[in-house]
Fold:
Amino acid sequence: MAKKKKNYTALSTISAKWVLNNLPFVFFVGLLATAYIANRHYSEKAVRDIQTLQEDVQKLRLRYLSLKSELMYDTKHSEVEKVVAEQGLTNKGKQPKKIIVD
Structure:
């Protein structure tokens, strides 16, 4: 049996005619594909930004907690007495007097 040659020119003419007849639809599909790709890039960028912001928030939270603990330690009565003693002030053991202004 002899092999028959396939006629691809007829098939390409049909698809070319179909594309030309449906050109607005082809443009619409291309526009949708472009919008889909752009949306994907935008969402990936947003996710990366969110991750970097979460890392920054975590670092700032740790810094806040360390500063808060330092402040709590530095404002203890014994620590305040040490700082004030360096300036020459002492606690004489007496209770402070209330000043009442009318």
